[in-house]
Structure formats: C-alpha cells, structure tokens
Amino acid sequence: MNASRLISAILVGAFLFGLYVVSFFVPGSLDGELNYMSAKGPVALEQLKVFWYTVAVSAFLVVTVGGAFVYALFKFRAKPGEDFAVPEQSHGKASIEVGLIIASCILLVVIAIPNAKALFYVNAPPEGAETIKVVAIGHQWWWEFQYPELGVTTANELHVPVGKAIDVEVRSADVLHSFWIPQLAGKMDAVPGQINTMWFQADEAGKYYGHCTEYCGDSHANMRFLVFAEEEAEFKKWVKNESSDAAVPETVEQVNGQRIFMQGCNSCHAIKGTDAMGVVGPNLSHFGSRVSLGSSIYDNDTEHLSKWLKYPQKMKPGSLMNLEQVNMVLSDSDVENLVAYLQNLK
Ligand code: CUA
Fold first, then answer.
1. In angstroms, what is the span from residue 88 Cα to ligand 1's centroid?
2. pLDDT, tens only, 16-54
3. pTM of the model
4. Fewer CB atoms inside 10 Å of the end CB: C or N, the chain?
C-alpha cells in the first residue's frame, strides 16, 4: 500500500468517526429506547463515564501513534530525484523501547483504575442506602421478577420507586441470559446455578426498556421487559395490589374462563388465591394490570391476547407454551372466555 492510499484510508476512517461523534449531538438521537448513552440513573451514569473516559484515552493513543506514523511517512519518504535505495537501517534503542513499555503500562493503569472503581460501584448498592430487593430470573423467553421482602412475584414488568436503589439478584432458570436496562444499568449475565448481583436506580419517573442481551435460543430477540419507575405512593399502591389475591371472576364468561384455565393452564401458571400454582410460565395473578404480554413484545389488548392463546407458537417461536404438544385445543369461545377471565385479573 502506498502512502497516498493509506492517508485516504485514515481520512475516511476519521470522517466516519467524526460522523459518529456528531450523531450524539443531533437532537433526539439520545432518546432511543435502548440507548445506553441516555443514562437516567447513577449506575448507568457511572458506566457511561467509564466508557467516555476509556474512549478518550484510546483516542489519545490513536492520535499520537497515528500522528507519529503519518509524520514519519512524510519525513522519511523518498523525495523526487532521490534514488530508491534502501536507506541506512538502525535496530532498536534501549531508552526508547523501555520508555514505550513504561508509557504503555502507565496508560493501562490509567484506564484500569476508574474501570475497577466502577466495577465495585455497580456490584452492590452504596452502604447504608435504603434498598428494595428484586430477584430477576431469566427463563426461555421471559423474565420473572420476585420481591422477596414484599411478597410479590410478577413477570416482564418491573415496578420500582424513583430515587431508590434496587438491589438485584440475577439468576437463570435454564440457559444463559443477560439482564440489561440500557438507560439504567447493564449488563449482568444470568447464569444457571449461580447468583450474580447488581443494582440500579431510576432518577426520573418513566417507562424504561429492558432486553435479554445474551443469545439464549429461538426467541432471544423476543425476550424483552419493561421497567416502570414510579413515585413512592404509586409504587406502594402497586405493591399492595400485587401482593393481594387475584380478582374473583364475576361474569359468566369470566367464570367459564377460570374453569378452562384450571383444566390445563394451571399446570404452568400460578394465580394467587386459586389452585393454579404452576411455575413453568409467568405468574398471572394480576395479568390484567400489565400493559404488555409475551415478555413485552405485544400490547396487552383483546386482539393480541386472543391471538396469543390461539397461536402461541406463531406469536413467539419456540415458546414453551405449545398447546399442540399437550393436546390442548381451544375453541373460539374458550379463547373468549379465557380472555375475559385474564383481563379481569387486574
Ligand atoms: Cu434470554 Cu437472550
């Protein structure tokens, strides 16, 4: 490769990198649902700081090494009129080589210190902080959320109070998953037979998006979840509702729906206050109060719920909810009754 080609390649690279940097300053570009650059809590902010710090040190390296290289290209190239004989070669200079090794070590330490500090910071909530404990369990392909201190078990929609540290224990029920809420914290692997810890805190009320970020099979891409950060009073109200028994069916349709549910669905799903105690699928005690279904890939409305009950394999490929496999045939009226029952579980 000759010098002019190399310089063109460097210029193109620099231009693309420049576009990338500029894109951060375009209004709205940081508002993406899965954009870790839009940190909304102390843990995500700490991780973002470490990211930028490491980028800055790396950029310094690229510029100095690249600069010296380009300088040498011009300084020592063959000038017009000169003959192209190989110039005099020299081999090594101890002071320069030792100096470069020491400089490299210093740069590594400069990067390592803030990274190590951040690792300890994100591992557990600050000492003495008031926390809420959550156990997040990855399943193929949904998330189970338990609040052991509050007597709540739910799925795919995590509710947390604003400004409070959430002490998370990440586990897996089957294969490797990874727990990630880009704007709040991430990522922590969910490893079968192992308990990993992390924490996060939302400083602003709102809805945050989470995603499994470790390939875990057919529906890895469909393994999402939502985090609702709410004011304390609203969160308490949610906990009170979630920790109470499920609503009792009232209409004829709802009663029929419950009867159908207890003839099969109950072996995989639990509903608080009934005989349904399955633990294979999501706990549905207050399913009607969730905004999404199928681990946050569909709106929780009549249309999607009916489709889900009828064709779970089409709605989420590979889902453990395989009605053919268990010879469960749901008629249209069964589906209508089930929808009525489930939607009443507010
Ligand atoms: Cu779970 Cu990917």
1. 59
2. 988 888 877 776 665 667 788 888 999 999 999 999 999
3. 0.84
4. N
